[in-house]
Design goal:
Length: 134
Amino acid sequence: MHVDVNWEGDERFKATTDSSFEVAIDRDLKTGPRPMEYILVGLGGCASVDVMSILKKARQDVVSCHASIDAERADAVPAVFTAIHITFKVTGRNLKPSAVERAARLSAEQYCSVSKMLEGGGVTITHSVEVSEA
């Protein structure tokens, strides 16, 4: 895996991924998210992909899946994440709440590489689920 990050001026950068996608990075939030926001995007994306894959294999009829991520950072520099909570809001037809809870747990405990990497750095990651009928 490879990424190039090029300075665009001021506090702005453009990253180009190995898969040819370009994303803006901006510490001042004028043209793109801050770097630490991308960490949360990566975590949310990784966990959501896992949850949906597990629910699909469990033959759950999911209509929507929303991950809401809240993070706390240290007061000192470097202001690393200290705690992150992911709330999965899953809507579907005849969903089994136990299947959604299991999917979130399996993602957290076994599958999400981003989660495991952050936990290895001392971040406490928790999750909860909200299930609703479509």
